Amino acid sequence: MAYDRQEATEQPTTTRLKRAREQGQVARSSDLSSSLLSLVAIGFALYWFPNMVAAVEVLLSNGMSYSSQNPSLLLIESGQSLLHILWLPCLVLFVAAVFSSVIQVGGLFAPIAAKFDFHRIDPISGWTRLWGSHGWMNLLFSCCKLTAAVLAAGAVGWSYKTELLSVSNGELVSSFTLIGMIAGKMVFASAGSLFVLGLIDVAWQRYQWKSNLKMTRQEVITERKEQHGNASIRRTVPMSKYSSDRIVPSLILVGKAIAISIRWNPTTMTSPVVLAFIGEGEIGLLVEKAKSQNIPVDMNHWLCSRIEQSCDAGTAVPPSLHSEIASVLTIGRRKIACV
Fold first, then answer.
1. Which of 42, 106, 237, 258 shows the greatest Cβ crowding within 10 Å of its Cβ?
2. DSSP-derived 3-state class of residue 147
3. What is the CA radius of gyration of the chain?
4. Angstrom distance (rounded) from CA 265 to CA 271
5. What's the CA gap between 265 and 272, in Å, rounded?
């Protein structure tokens, strides 16, 4: 059954969130993943760069120098040296990429998320997403990322302005070394600022994810019925437990196979609240107790059915039924007053 999404004001249940995860609908920030990967890549490059330079120097010297060794063997050795240089950086980047996803969504594997969806290539929906509120939010966030990266790099460069101005007076090798160090710090600062924005984006993506999964009142009730079975069985309360309840009902509605106790004080409550559902075998005891306490009792199968379908124990009755309950409650109190 389809529901109006404008009425979706209830927070998603645990079951709804779990079902969304199984379908691959998770709150994930690509900005956090890319920024974290960039930080790891830059940090590891600064650590691995001297070893890489030394290995490349040996590789070039062996390849360019005269040797009586078989060229095929030289080619194999060069390939092994190249593999030795690159295997650790590739492994580190792979672990960082996996870790950046695991810290956001956990160890989730949902093949259904890779299923082809024509809606993703629909130009009309794509145009709507591009120029809608979500598209403008992405544009604003992209501008913030660019601004933050430029400001972070500029702040680092400004702090080294004296060293940069004196580069022309130093030796060539030391000047290149200094420029390389400052450039590395500038890039690292830019990646750090993007990482902070990625953390903010995670919170935003999670808020959007939960907002899109909000449920209507009827969806919550339907889900509870699916989890626990028929309402007339699962929600009935034994009279022994009901008798010890401190909340006194204002009205007892009796249906074909179930009775409903309702609490409503129009002066202090905005809506009637369902206290409990009583099973068919104990309706007689409930009616006798209600009459002894001068609580209105009404045989109304239609109203009981409507409340049973749209409410659960402890929830408010929908506004569409307020007038019916008010009318029944008024007539019941008049009958008690006349006795």
1. 258
2. helix
3. 35
4. 8
5. 8
pLDDT of residue 184: 80
Q: What is the pTM of this model?
A: 0.52
| Domain annotation covers residue 81 | yes
Do 134 and 253 lie in one domain? The reply is: no
Encode burial over 78-117: b for 16+ CB neighbours within 10 A, e otherwise.
Answer: eeebeeebeeebeebeeebeeebbeebeeeeeeeeeeeee
- What are the pLDDT digits (tens) for 88-133? 888 888 888 888 888 877 766 665 555 666 666 667 766 776 677 6
- Give me the sign of the Cα torsion angle 278, 282, 284, 290: negative
Supply the CATH number for residue 256's domain.
3.40.1690.10
Residue 299 lies in domain: 230-338
Please give, one letter per residue, the 3-state secondary structure of 94-141. HHHHHHHHHHHHCCCCCHHHHCCCHHHHCHHHHHHHHHCHHHHHHHHH
Largest CA distance in the chain: 121
Joined together, the tokens standing for residue 303 give 């109203």
